[in-house]
């Protein structure tokens, strides 16, 4: 069972990365919007707009790095899920599942007729 804890923690780490990515992308969109608004203000200096775009680009680089980490780490988790599915598939006999589904459908049909 200790291996399961490791995989669960791995999943939590991937979830944390996706949450971070979501927040970074929202910030990126806000920074782009702010730079666009700053660009439309007549009194804004060109240097201020360039600085805002520089911040956008820096955040974009961070987002790219998070995506690369997620790409690398998510494959291992997907491999784990595929392996687990294969093991379950080999251990579970289809006729038992089919009979359970049939019984459930018959039960629902009987309840709907009443």
Helix content: over 70%
> Any idea how many domains?
1
pLDDT < 50 stretches: none
Specify the oligomeric state.
Answer: single chain
Could you describe the largest sheet, including whether it forms a barrel? none
Order of helices and strands: HHH
Percentage of residues in strands: under 5%
> Compute the gyration radius: what is it?
25 Å
Question: What is the average per-residue confidence, as pLDDT, rounded to a whole number?
Answer: 86
Counting helices, strands and paired strands, the structural category is mainly alpha
Gross geometry: elongated
- What is the number of helical segments per DSSP (H or I, 4+ residues)? 3
Cα distance spanning the termini? 46 Å
**Total count of strands:** 0
């Amino acid at each position: 069972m200790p291996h399961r804890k490791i995989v669960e923690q791995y999943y939590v780490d991937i979830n944390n990365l996706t949450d971070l990515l979501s927040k970074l992308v929202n910030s990126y969109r806000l920074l782009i919007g702010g730079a666009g608004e700053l660009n439309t203000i007549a009194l804004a200096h060109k240097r201020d707009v360039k600085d805002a775009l520089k911040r956008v680009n820096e955040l974009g680089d961070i987002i790219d790095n998070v995506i690369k980490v997620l790409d690398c780490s998510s494959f291992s988790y997907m491999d784990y899920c595929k392996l687990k599915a294969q093991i379950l598939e080999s251990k579970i006999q289809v006729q038992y599942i089919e009979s359970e589904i049939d019984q459930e459908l018959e039960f629902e049909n009987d309840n709907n007729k009443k």
